[in-house]
């Protein structure tokens, strides 16, 4: 367990974080997703992986590397991209917009190809809806699929992932955090260099 509770006690500190997936668990999940993608696509022909920032992109990089290791005909560098969804979100009026990340589309484009969107956590589905809107601006794929490391439920839109690393039942009050070496360099034990944690809210203690 990674305990983030402060010394002041659970009523004032952040919620304790419980590790759900270790680095080894994440690696196995991504290996399985890579094989599922190849099987669904019947090979790597016309396959493009687009990661959704921030953590979807390094996950897409890892999946692309695993596909290339299985299928030498797959050019990971030429089949990998990043799709920023910031300006397509439906909550821009309520929440300050995060700084947009660059959208990078492979040189050969996505028209007529199989595009796999990659993200870290599937929750309400609104980020994926924004990604589908953003995709319209860059081309017309033959088919679009979705791969996520964690599906935690609580959908608000009719969106389903095709490839899931782990289905994780949670309450809406809990927070699911994906921490990757590329995006979250805080010191952690080696086995948790990559990890998925659940933060459970701590009830306030009455004085």
From TrEMBL:
A motif (PRPP-binding) lies at residues 115-127. Keywords: Glycosyltransferase, Transcription, Transcription regulation, Transferase. Its EC number is 2.4.2.9. One of its GO terms (biological process) is regulation of DNA-templated transcription. It catalyses: UMP + diphosphate = 5-phospho-alpha-D-ribose 1-diphosphate + uracil. It comes from the Bacteria. GO terms for molecular function: uracil phosphoribosyltransferase activity. NCBIfam families: PRK05205.1-3 (NF003547), PRK05205.1-5 (NF003549). Regulates the transcription of the pyrimidine nucleotide (pyr) operon in response to exogenous pyrimidines. Belongs to the purine/pyrimidine phosphoribosyltransferase family. PyrR subfamily. This is Bifunctional protein PyrR. The gene is pyrR.
